């Protein structure tokens, strides 16, 4: 027994040694001994100019806030593993990027197991300005058992599915795309484009889900927001889903959808002829989608914008539970979210090097921009960013309106404790992988295969998960 513990300790030590040596963009700490220097871990492709920007950040923060920070970038493929190892070993760090969609380093799991600092008292005390700077729905989504462990990034607060139309064909056939919100609305145009153009009009890929208003609280179990909002159920066995997959199966049989949809990647759309596809996006993402599909596009929202825990914590920054400088870490987080100079420095780089200003709050990129393109959502509120060239100058007002109008799920703030049903959840996920792509894309008969899927999911423990979640949800609502 003691030998096993010793070997485990050696293994953890070895992994941490690899972790530290792997942070290739980490500078040696040359800060003044009387100035607190924070460590901040984030993910993304390591940038050539990260140290140059880090020096500029420290020059600013030392003078204005009396602290400095070391920015550590870890590549996408390594971040989950390295940060999970750091937390599991109880090592100290000050700040780190997290998100609901990460694997081992996701927000809920690591907050629950004590890896992140409870910052509730800070937000209600010294950092009230930070709390008031974010839409309240972000804080609701971040709450776990009455406590908050993350500062969410204030960007789009809801994940919404959109139809994406090829503008060339929209213009050619005078398609009233803004009125197309359902499969029934879409069907006559699929028929016309198929007849006139001789193509598969709908390019569909393996990730398509036939979206309807449903809050998936864990695996596919959650609340049908188009039905009884007090009842826990499963996404795949509700009437809205069954209606949608039945229609999609008809579309596939008519030749309206590419035959390889169950295996197709969304990136494979480039170079193909198509009329419509879909994506999850925010209100400012049309230009990004255009770049991804390499065509001019117009979009129409398919579902209402629903705020869930997952969307509210789509990205954020946490303070490590064992941070030696929690007060200073929160001070820096407040600054990043309320000080436009600091936010733009972190997000865009150095003025005169990576960009130049063309107005009070507009910029254009310089050649060195390619040396520093870190994702903005690693840092703080988008509302403090300058407008990059080509972007509308009212973009943040548009985003504020979108966030304000997004509807909170009735389960916003409820976080399911999976401890007693973790084995069942893993088994359910395996069953879904067997069926979901084939059913979602209309590649197989939905009635027959949903019945098979349901039988296997029930055998895997679906009812146990639903019942446990119902019990916890009912208790949470009291």
TrEMBL record:
Residues 410-478 form the DUF3502 domain. The keyword Signal applies. Pfam families: DUF3502, SBP_bac_1. It comes from the Bacteria. InterPro entries: Bact_solute-bd_prot1, DUF3502, SBP. Residues 1-26 form the signal peptide. SUPFAM superfamilies: Periplasmic binding protein-like II. Keywords: Signal. This is DUF3502 domain-containing protein. It comes from Enterococcus phoeniculicola ATCC BAA-412. The lineage of its organism: Bacteria, Bacillati, Bacillota, Bacilli, Lactobacillales.
């Amino acid at each position: 027994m003691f030998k096993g513990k010793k070997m485990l300790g050696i293994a953890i030590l070895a992994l941490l040694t690899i972790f530290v040596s792997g942070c290739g963009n980490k500078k040696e700490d040359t800060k003044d001994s009387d100035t607190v220097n924070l460590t901040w871990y984030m993910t993304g492709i390591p940038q050539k100019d990260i140290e140059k920007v880090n020096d500029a950040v420290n020059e600013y923060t030392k003078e204005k806030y009396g602290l400095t920070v070391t920015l550590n970038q870890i590549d996408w493929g390594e971040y989950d593993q390295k940060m999970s190892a750091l937390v599991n070993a109880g090592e100290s760090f000050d700040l780190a990027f997290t998100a609901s969609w990460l694997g081992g380093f996701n927000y809920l799991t690591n907050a629950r197991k004590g890896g992140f600092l409870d910052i509730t008292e800070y937000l209600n005390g010294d950092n009230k300005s930070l709390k008031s700077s974010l839409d309240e729905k972000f804080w609701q989504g971040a709450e776990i058992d009455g406590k908050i462990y993350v500062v969410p990034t204030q960007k789009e607060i809801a994940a919404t599915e959109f139809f994406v139309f090829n503008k060339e064909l929209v213009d050619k056939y005078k398609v009233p795309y803004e009125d197309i919100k359902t499969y029934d609305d879409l069907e006559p145009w699929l028929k016309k484009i198929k007849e006139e153009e001789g193509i598969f009009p709908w390019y569909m890929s393996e990730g398509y889900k036939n979206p309807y208003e449903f809050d998936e609280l864990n695996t596919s179990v959650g609340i049908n927001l188009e039905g009884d909002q007090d009842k826990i159920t499963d996404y795949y066995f509700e009437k809205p889903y069954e209606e949608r997959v039945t229609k999609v199966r008809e579309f596939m049989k008519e030749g309206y959808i590419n035959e390889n949809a169950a295996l197709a990647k969304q990136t494979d759309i480039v170079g193909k002829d198509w009329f419509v596809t879909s994506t999850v996006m925010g209100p400012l993402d049309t230009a990004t989608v255009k770049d991804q599909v390499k065509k001019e596009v117009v979009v129409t929202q398919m579902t209402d914008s629903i705020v869930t825990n997952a969307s509210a914590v789509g990205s954020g920054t946490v303070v490590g539970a064992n941070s030696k400088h929690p007060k200073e870490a929160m001070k820096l987080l407040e600054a990043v979210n309320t000080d436009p100079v600091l936010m733009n420095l972190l997000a865009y780089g150095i003025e005169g090097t990576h960009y130049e200003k063309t107005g009070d709050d507009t910029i254009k990129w310089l050649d060195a921009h390619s040396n520093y393109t870190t994702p903005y959502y690693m840092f703080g509120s988008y509302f403090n960013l300058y407008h990059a060239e080509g972007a509308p100058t009212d973009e943040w007002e548009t985003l504020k309106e979108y966030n304000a109008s997004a509807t909170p799920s009735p389960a916003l703030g409820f976080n399911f404790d999976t401890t007693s049903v973790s084995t069942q959840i893993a088994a359910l996920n395996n069953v879904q992988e067997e069926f979901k792509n084939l059913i979602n894309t209309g590649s197989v008969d939905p009635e027959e295969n949903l019945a098979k899927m349901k039988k296997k999911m029930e055998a895997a423990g679906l009812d146990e998960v639903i019942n446990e979640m119902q019990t916890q949800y009912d208790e949470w609502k009291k």
